[in-house]
Amino acid sequence: MTQSRSRNPVLNSKERPKTRRHRGKFDPTRLNGALVISDEARLALERCLLFQGLERNELMAVAALVEETAVEVNEMLLTEGDTARYLYIVIEGQGAAQVKTERGWLSLGLVGPGEAAGWSSLMGGSVVYPASVKALTDMKVARIETSGLKLLMNVDPKIGYPVLKSVSAIFYLQYEAALTAAKTA
């Protein structure tokens, strides 16, 4: 009687199934299965100035932190003075950034697809949103809890440095726009 090899729990080295060894860097963009986020959300992240300097695998690491959510027209996406815990990337729709003044609301500009709202949440310490964003249309946004994003940025400088560099660029552009608005008002 011949012995069945499939029943033998101990296989010698010649009989062991070969395993594929992964060589090189892990690339989450090559995983099989469901996508982490929708194509629309991925495209919004790719277009967003905050993430312009990231490679595809680094962008997908950020995408793993995304929770897609809807905001109805006239609803506040974020509110001035609230603790800044989230960064929002607009996927669809448009919002108005505004601050409350003694004379009412002062519009700072529009936030549309591929643009970030709440980027101040990436600053250190306990930070509040310096402005509100109100939905002018129904919006779909990618919400990222910034504690997770900050951790990712600290662990991987290839993500952290370009994002912080982009925050500086956004700050400068908004500062420049505010100066121009103040001079023309």
- Unreliable spans: 16-35
What CATH calls the topology is Jelly Rolls
Quantity of strands, as a count: 8
Report the principal-axis shape: globular
The CATH C-level name is Mainly Beta
Task: Count up the domains.
Answer: 1
Roughly how many Å is the radius of gyration? 23 Å
Major pleated sheet? 4 strands, antiparallel
What's the helix count?
4
Mean pLDDT level: 83
Q: Look at the structure and name the CATH superfamily.
A: Jelly Rolls
Taken in chain order, the helices and strands follow as: HHEEEEEEEEHH
- Please state the oligomeric state of the protein chains shown: single chain
Structural class: alpha+beta
How widely separated are the two ends? 98 Å
Helix proportion range? 25-40%
CATH architecture: Sandwich
Brief summary:
The chain is of the alpha+beta class.
How would you describe this structure to a colleague?
With 185 residues, this protein is of the alpha+beta class. It has a single domain, classed as Jelly Rolls. The protein is 30% helix and 24% strand. It has helices at residues 39-47, 56-63, 146-155, 157-184, and strands at residues 66-71, 76-78, 86-92, 95-101, 104-111, 116-117, 132-135, 139-145. A hairpin with a 2-residue loop joins strand 4 and strand 5. Helix 3 (146-155) crosses helix 4. The radius of gyration is 23 Å and the shape is globular. The N and C termini lie far apart (98 Å).
